[in-house]
Amino acid sequence: MKAAVLQEANKPLTIEDVDIIDPRAGEVLVRTSCSGVCHSDLHFVDGSWQLPMSCVLGHEAAGVVEAIGEGVTYVKPGDRVIMSFRPFCGKCYYCLGGRPNLCNDPEIGAASASRLTWNGSPILQFASVGSFAEMMVTSENGLVKIPDEMPMAEASLIGCGVMTGVGAALYTANVPGGSTVAVIGCGGIGLNIIQGCRIAGAANIIAIDIMDSKLEMASQFGATHTINSKEVDLDEAIKEITKGEGVEYAWFNNVETKPGTGYPTKWEDQLIYKGGWEEKAGSSNTIQLKGAGKAKGMGNIFHNPNLPVIDDYYEPFTYKYLDLIESPEADDQPTARPVSLITGKPMDIKMGPNWDDDLSGSPDYARNDPNLENLSAAERESMFQLEKMAFFYLP
User: Fold this and answer.
1) Residue from 34, 35, 38, 197 carrying the catalytic annotation
2) Terminal Cα-to-Cα distance of the chain (whole angstroms)
3) Is 139 considered catalytic here?
4) Which residues pair with 6 in a beta bridge?
5) Is residue 160 annotated as a catalytic residue, yes or no?
């Protein structure tokens, strides 16, 4: 099969012929239909996070079951599924108790040993998924079936970005109806936290960002108030909205805190409601709060038991999937027009006549993309290799 292989940080991904084994007992072979490019993938590409090389990245994906291993009962060939990047064992104390996010043995199936080989040697299958490839093998417990009417592009977002954000609000914080919340950083995760708070019935949802375009999206996803923290004093704005009380729940979403960016350098110095929560969604980091406030990092993404909830939100379209994607396709490729994670500007996709050549050939028009003008040469190379793929990621 074809796969996009990362051989070295800050180097272009290359399209290679990679071998994938048949599913073993308890495992499932899935043909990739759509994959997102998560910021976590970009961290490994630019070297800010490390992985054993070489590897096949990608962990938020949807596809169709091709084959099943011995003992698999949950899915059958032809089923449409979402991938979950932390399969659970289903047998330990916590799994049997309904808390698979605390699984004692999550390193099962494709998580413990890659099912991929390249040039005769094993290569890493990132996050038990490795969705930057035509096929994936993972544990039966790493899949969730989806309805036939759900488009694959929207479905692929759910396995990471959607459940990280919505789960942080609904399951980790258990936001009660009528509460007041703040979400700092309104990218993909932030928008989904806002959705989760809206679904939970929060009365006041304050979206904070330095880009008006993201604040407009936040309003569409459920924010009742928006603050451009580059233009106003954040403390005073929150005081005005909450009549001096502050917020009960707050999320700080992987945003830079350098002077001049408009975000608070120390969120614990901002107004937090009496005994309120603060979370950094998608991270296990603990954030210190002053006073009586509680701080909590969301240690694990939610697994199979939580994901079926999506059916309830998808059917009446109260849950916004489509707006997470900039456009349905570009040049007949199953892709959306991505938004640069660096500049916030739309990136122009110009797919070449040969997809493989376009990905591996590093065309000059991509190298010279003005959207990337503030990046180093190595960063530009890595960024456009991802952004020119027939994948997409959250705005």
Assistant:
1) 38
2) 29
3) no
4) 55
5) yes
Exactly one of 89, 103, 160, 197 is catalytic; which is it? 160
- What is the dotted CATH code of the domain comprising 2-159+305-387? 3.90.180.10
- Chain region(s) in the chain for CATH 3.40.50.720: 166-297
**Structural contact between residues 190 and 183, judged by C-beta atoms closer than 8 angstroms:** yes
Q: What pLDDT score does 381 carry?
A: 52
Is the pTM for the entire model greater than 0.70?
no
pLDDT along the chain (395 residues), means of 10: 90 90 93 86 83 90 95 95 83 80 67 81 89 92 86 82 80 84 86 90 92 91 93 85 82 50 42 41 37 37 41 38 41 34 39 35 43 55 42 29
Question: Residues 43, 229, 340, 360: which is the catalytic one?
Answer: 43
For residues 12 and 65, the answer to whether their CB atoms sit within 8 Å is no
CA distances from 62 to 22, 139, 152, 153, 275 (A): 19, 14, 6, 8, 39
Q: Quote the pLDDT of residue 376.
A: 61
Instruction: Indicate the fold that domain 166-297 takes in CATH.
Output: Rossmann fold (3.40.50)
Mark whether 89 is an active-site residue.
no
Residue among 33, 34, 35, 59 flagged as catalytic: 59
Of the residues 33, 40, 131, 139, which is catalytic? 40
Has 40 been annotated as catalytic? yes
Active site residue 156: no
